[in-house]
């Protein structure tokens, strides 16, 4: 695509290319995600995010992983889209509604500047029904379910935040070989739409360490929906209380699963790195 304007942004190191679909004409977004995400021959990113007009919300987000697959939801991108539409004067609101394939998300812009802004997103209710996640396990909710991978038993807890997550509580995550291990979870036949997988160490009742293997992207420095899913799984397994700080490779996210309305709230930074034009 010639003369395509883009902005590179990240949330806790989870980096995407953002394109204003209100002014730019995108033809094959899936193919574009693959080529632009390439870290040698493209811009380099975990995927592509389109900001589009919406009939029901202020804006609509469409998100593609670096392998070209379209995801229902992306937590880190949601924060960045909020910052993008405000900085680019597409809105003057600091409370923004965003249509996604996983329903409406409510963004609140907090303190910040043109480079970095703190953003909270009401991510809605977690989905625990295995049919809806989807995962081919009848136990409901799926907590500490034994999954055998190459002769080793892992205990998975499954949560959807609009997209599927398998959360594993374990130890020694910094030594895990995720490029070998991650795909064995991602493509396991019990996940009919594949899965994102979070490897979690419990630090204390309000703190977790996390590494993530993302469906369609591989290991990323952070995953917002994954952090929400990990928090929900930690609370359901009684490892943690309802407010949790999650340390990811690229930064921290604060997650609250509120008892009063069952919604998950994610707070973290959204950062603009640079703008450019594809020649
Ligand atoms: N990094 C994202 C999630 C992106 C989509 C995911 N790989 C999927 O295919 O479901 C986040 O911050 O939530």
Automatic annotation (TrEMBL):
It catalyses: (2S,6S)-2,6-diaminopimelate = meso-2,6-diaminopimelate. GO terms for molecular function: diaminopimelate epimerase activity. The record marks 165, 214 as: Could be important to modulate the pK values of the two catalytic cysteine residues. Its main location: cytoplasm. Substrate binds at residues 14, 65, 75-76, 163, 196, 214-215, 224-225. It comes from the Bacteria. Its EC number is 5.1.1.7. Transmembrane segments: none annotated. Keywords: Amino-acid biosynthesis, Cytoplasm, Isomerase, Lysine biosynthesis. Coiled coil: none annotated. GO terms for biological process: lysine biosynthetic process via diaminopimelate. The active site is at residues 74, 223. It is found in: Cytoplasm. Pathway: Amino-acid biosynthesis; L-lysine biosynthesis via DAP pathway; DL-2,6-diaminopimelate from LL-2,6-diaminopimelate: step 1/1. Gene3D superfamilies: Diaminopimelate Epimerase, Chain A, domain 1. GO terms for cellular component: cytosol. SUPFAM superfamilies: Diaminopimelate epimerase-like (SSF54506). Homodimer. Belongs to the diaminopimelate epimerase family. Catalyzes the stereoinversion of LL-2,6-diaminopimelate (L,L-DAP) to meso-diaminopimelate (meso-DAP), a precursor of L-lysine and an essential component of the bacterial peptidoglycan. This is Diaminopimelate epimerase. It comes from Dysgonomonas alginatilytica. The gene is dapF.
């Amino acid at each position: 695509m010639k003369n395509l304007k883009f902005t590179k942004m990240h949330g806790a190191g989870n980096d995407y290319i953002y394109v204003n679909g209100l002014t730019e004409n995108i033809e094959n977004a899936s193919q574009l995600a693959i080529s632009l995400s390439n870290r040698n021959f493209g811009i380099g990113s975990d995927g592509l995010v389109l900001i589009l007009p919406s009939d029901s919300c202020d804006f609509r987000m469409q998100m593609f992983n670096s392998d070209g697959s379209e995801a229902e939801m992306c937590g880190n991108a949601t924060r960045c889209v909020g910052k993008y539409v405000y900085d680019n004067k597409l809105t003057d609101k600091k409370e923004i509604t965003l249509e996604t394939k996983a329903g409406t998300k409510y963004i609140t812009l907090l303190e910040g500047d043109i480079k970095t802004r703190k953003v909270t997103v009401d991510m809605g209710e977690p989905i625990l029904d295995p049919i809806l996640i989807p995962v081919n396990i009848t136990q409901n909710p799926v907590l500490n379910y034994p999954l055998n991978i190459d002769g080793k038993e892992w205990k998975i807890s499954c949560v959807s935040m609009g997209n599927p997550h398998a959360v594993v509580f374990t130890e020694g995550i910094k030594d895990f070989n995720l490029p070998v291990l991650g795909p064995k979870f991602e493509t396991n036949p019990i996940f009919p739409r594949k899965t994102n997988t979070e490897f979690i160490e419990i630090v204390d009742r309000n703190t977790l360490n996390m590494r993530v293997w993302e469906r369609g992207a591989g290991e990323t420095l952070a995953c917002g929906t994954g952090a929400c899913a990990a928090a929900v799984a930690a609370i359901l397994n009684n490892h943690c209380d309802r407010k949790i700080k999650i340390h990811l490779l690229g930064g921290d996210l604060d997650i609250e699963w509120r008892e009063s309305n069952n919604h998950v709230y994610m707070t973290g930074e959204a950062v603009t790195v640079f703008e450019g034009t594809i020649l």
